[in-house]
């Protein structure tokens, strides 16, 4: 009888332990399923990629440079030229991003009617890498106010002829080439082009034709800032009229802010006669050094 009681107690213990094991197993299964579902429902965060820091080559104590147009940079001759240049001690290469014709040689967003001027044959990042591998500085040349494409396409961007009230141009025999440096739309488009170039990894931006026109009948040329100043003076008798130097200086300051933001250098080409600093030349060009 005693053995029978022990047997019953042992049987009960086995049943209890078995039930606890099954419950634990079920709980583990539920917990495991919850983990799987949680993983399936988990959406990884789209963390914004950090921009890679752009490395620039600082100006050398003595610059030995060459200039190459965009077509040469985009050709098979580019690398052999660089090899020869490196052997000759060249440490800086200036190449076109926008030329006198108004053609833009790298990708920039443009309105449909202006896409004819876009010739994106230069990949700035690629050119910069190639030059940096040879310890050469990359300098992008951007022509400012001499722009045949824009001058021909939109005459409202040019100075006005005081006599005819039509768009002014420097020569009756030639196509119009000069834009009005004080025209806000002209400046805005150039600023946008410079901004796109500045963030491409280039070491330096070089402004060319950063001046007013000097040829043709300049006495008949009326610029936007002159008309604007005249209107302001009618409302404010104390207003001080601007000159061409003021226009160029203020524009360069805007460009300088862009270059400083992207930690690159800004340089400009000076019209040769300005080196003499004659008052008439400074007054005509707007360049005062």
How is the secondary structure organized here?
Layout: H1 2-41, E1 65-68, H2 70-73, H3 78-87, E2 92-98, H4 124-133, E3 137-143, H5 148-153, E4 160-161, H6 184-198, E5 204-208, E6 221-222, H7 224-235, H8 244-261, E7 265-268, H9 279-285
Parallel strand pairs: 1-2, 2-3, 3-5, 5-7
Antiparallel strand pairs: 4-6
Helix pairs in contact: 6-8
Can you walk through the features of this model?
The chain is α/β, with parallel strands linked by helices and 289 residues long. It has 2 domains: 1-41; 65-285, Glycosidases (TIM Barrel). The protein is 42% helix and 11% strand. The chain has 9 helices and 7 strands. It has helices spanning 2-41, 70-73, 78-87, 124-133, 148-153, 184-198, 224-235, 244-261, 279-285, and strands at 65-68, 92-98, 137-143, 160-161, 204-208, 221-222, 265-268. The strands form 2 sheets. A 5-stranded parallel β-sheet has the order 1-2-3-5-7. Strand 2 (92-98), helix 4 and strand 3 form a beta-alpha-beta unit. Helix 6 (184-198) packs parallel to helix 8 (244-261). The protein is globular and about 60 Å long. The termini are far apart. Residues 2-17 and 35-40 have low confidence and may be disordered.
Quick synopsis:
With 289 residues, the chain is of the alpha/beta class.
CATH architecture of the largest domain: Alpha-Beta Barrel
Listing every helix as H and every strand as E from the N terminus to the C terminus, the arrangement reads HEHHEHEHEHEEHHEH
Structural domains: how many? 2
Shape assignment: globular
Task: List low-pLDDT spans.
Answer: 2-17, 35-40
* Radius of gyration, CA atoms, in whole angstroms: 35 Å
CATH level 4 superfamily of the largest domain: Glycosidases
Strand pairing plus helix content: what structural class? alpha/beta
Q: What's the helix count?
A: 9
Helix content: 40-55%
Biggest sheet strand order reads 1-2-3-5-7
Task: Tell me the fraction of residues in β-strands, as a range.
Answer: 5-15%
Largest sheet: 5 strands, parallel
Highest-level CATH class of the largest domain = Alpha Beta
Question: What is the CA-CA span between the terminal residues?
Answer: 122 Å
Overall mean pLDDT: 87
How many extended strands? 7
